[in-house]
Amino acid sequence: MSQQLSLLQNTKSSDTPDPAVSEQVRSPVFGVDLHCHSTASDGELSPTELVELAASVGVHTLALTDHDTLAGVDEARRAADRLGIKLITGSEVSCELAVTPKKVVILHVVALGITKPEVLEQHLAKIQQSRADRAQAMCERVKQITGVSIYERALELADGIAGALTRSHMAKALVDLGVVSKHQQAFDLYLKRGKKGYEQLQTASLKQTLKLIHASGAKCVLAHPTRYGLSATHTRKLIDTFAAAGGDAVELCKLSEPMATRDMVNTKIQEHGLMVSVASDFHGASMSWNKLGHVNPPAAHQRGVWLSL
What we know:
seven-stranded mixed sheet, TIM Barrel
């Protein structure tokens, strides 16, 4: 593995929202990681580099789950075949859910084990167009607030692919252009829900999305269930709704999250008989608190979704 990959995995950035967690409780390398990103969306490593890093840290089963695209899968599979890693075809698909009559949130459902990609392609293309339109609108809002045009730099960071341009690219552009000093600061000041630079992605409902994912031959996994800005009550209702709509599994909380939060999610998983998924949500150095392969392993009574793929 190159020195660059080693640095990306081992560097701990101080510009992250990483809670103060000791190395003793940091998630171990489990060997399975079912949520990570490459340069096909907002990751910092190419699909090949990502798989090489996975092999170097001891991951034997990997899912590439770029946002609303399958563009990196073929390249990743070639590297996985060469290195003897099981690669699961996946994507992190955006959808929406009305959690209250006045509040609609964008959820992420990880599709794992896609066998009929053609079923999803048209839908993913629509989301990519919505993402491109949102990026332009958000960058214009940020320009009005800061006086700095970030669109060109953000698009460059997205390899010139407007449909792949995410808020992470915008955050990096804000850092690169000196508007903010830290990645998370860009979200806190301009890019997260409720800030003046934010605009919501337009996509399908949770129920429609689960139906499409199942039609593609994949399992539906609720990504990072505690990261939607919801109260504990609404987080529990979210898992209820996901299960009722036909969801298959929920990602386990990170070990850095409070025990009470982890217990709450685990209780809901057990209540609905859902499978579990393990996920680092690795992107690269700008989000270095998420290390590839470092996941919360399942309890003995929990069934891993990868066992069904």
